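task queued by scheduler; priority normal; single chain, no ligands, no partner chains; default sampling; output format set to structure tokens
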Amino acid sequence: MKSRHQRLWGIGLGLLLLCGALFFVLNAFQSNLVFFFTPSQVVAGEAPQSGAFRVGGLVKPGSIERNGMAVAFVVTDTQREVPVRYVGLLPDLFKEGKGVVAQGRLEGGQLFVASEVLAKHDENYMPPEAQHALDQAAKARTGAAVLR
């Protein structure tokens, strides 16, 4: 075989290997991708019914129920609410009326079963997605009050 043909075969094989590696990297990235949804979006059916995702907002006051390591609570964006069940240790800063982001899956289309719960870590911080959701809910409330 001529050296020119050998070079073309080498380039073709290199491109094929590069495409294969890129496929595996993108596939791994997509399988680990977790999207954020507000309680209003979850209730509206915009969240995946079978895959993992994050839901965030405020822990509804008076909604925390503990049973050993199992905890049930409600996440709200002040418009809609999503019941959450979690088994495990909660962050020390997890409290009623404070910001929270839970990662997990919907069970039965209504109950969110969390595999991880994250709480805000100081008085000034809230996850950007949760803050945006609360701001949008406040705008919707003020808009509805003006229309009345």
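post-processing summary
- The first strand starts at residue 36 and ends at 37.
- DSSP finds three helices and seven strands in the chain.
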